[in-house]
Write a structure and sequence with these properties.
This protein has 216 residues and is of the alpha+beta class. The chain has a single domain, classed as PPM-type phosphatase domain (Phosphatase 2c, domain 1, 4-Layer Sandwich), CATH 3.60.40.10. The chain has helices spanning 44-60, 65-81, 113-120, 128-133, 167-170, 175-183, 188-201; strands at 2-3, 7-13, 24-29, 32-37, 86-90, 95-100, 103-106, 150-154, 161-165, 208-214. The strands form 3 sheets. Strands 2-10-9-6-7 form a 5-stranded antiparallel sheet. The protein has a 3-stranded antiparallel sheet with strand order 1-4-3, with helices on one face. A two-stranded antiparallel sheet has the order 5-8. Strand 6 (95-100) and strand 7 form a beta hairpin. Helix 1 (44-60) packs antiparallel against helix 2 (65-81). The radius of gyration is 16 Å and the shape is globular.
Length: 216
């Protein structure tokens, strides 16, 4: 996501399941560029893919949809081989939420078989089949078919609060808790700490990463 805002913060926690944190987060505030890459698995390949994807994307990201798509395409190539507005780029199962006037909305679609199954009624969202399907990604950086990302144009308003997070937050912190934390009058770094703390209390079953952006 790119553009200009006033206050933002990022944080990440290893959780309890893995010995290391394979999520990668990047945040610069002026102009705004926030990136969350959720590592796939717990090996060096996951570490390399996440780090490469973020570094290549950050180096190539501009203030247009075309430049963002090209940045993702460049990251695809790198991983496979080894603005005027606000743009949201999504590929994989990390998520972006927006809190506006008390309403918390999910702005992104999970690129997983679990999402397709829930939308099309193949199985209940909390079923064992859905749980297994969450690990079956349909789009991600490094996919051999080089799938395109979703690129959304956002019109931000004063008072909006945005959350970019890996599934370690989205799968462990309930919707109402996310809405409650983002709705508090607290600096973004404190909101990030609270989100990561709730994810840890819920079991810490995955790396948990969050970026909170408050629009002034």
């Amino acid at each position: 996501m790119t553009g200009h805002v006033t206050r933002a913060a990022a944080g990440s926690d290893v959780g309890r399941r893995y010995s290391a944190n394979f999520d990668v987060v990047h945040l610069t505030e002026d102009p705004l560029l926030a990136v969350v890459a959720d590592g796939m698995g717990d090996g060096e390949g996951s570490r390399m893919a996440g780090r490469t994807a973020v570094d290549v994307f950050v180096a190539g990201a501009g203030d247009s949809a075309d430049s963002l798509r090209e940045a993702v395409a460049s990251a695809q190539r790198q991983v496979t081989e080894s603005g005027g507005g606000h743009w949201l780029v999504q590929i994989g199962d990390s998520r972006a939420y927006r809190l506006r006037d008390g309403l918390l909305e999910l702005l992104t679609t999970d690129h997983t078989m679990a999402w397709l199954g829930a939308v099309n009624g193949w199985y209940a969202f909390d079923s064992p089949q859905a749980s297994a399907a969450r690990y079956q990604l349909t789009r991600y950086i490094g996919h051999p078919a080089h799938p395109e990302p979703d690129v959304l144009s956002l019109a931000l308003r004063p008072g909006d609060v945005l959350l970019l997070c890996s599934d370690g937050v989205a799968e462990q912190v309930p919707y109402e808790r996310i809405r409650e934390i983002l709705g508090r009058l607290a600096p973004p770094d404190e909101q990030v700490r609270q989100l990561l703390a709730v994810a840890e209390e819920a079991g810490g079953q995955d790396n948990a990463t969050a970026v909170v952006v408050q629009v002034a």
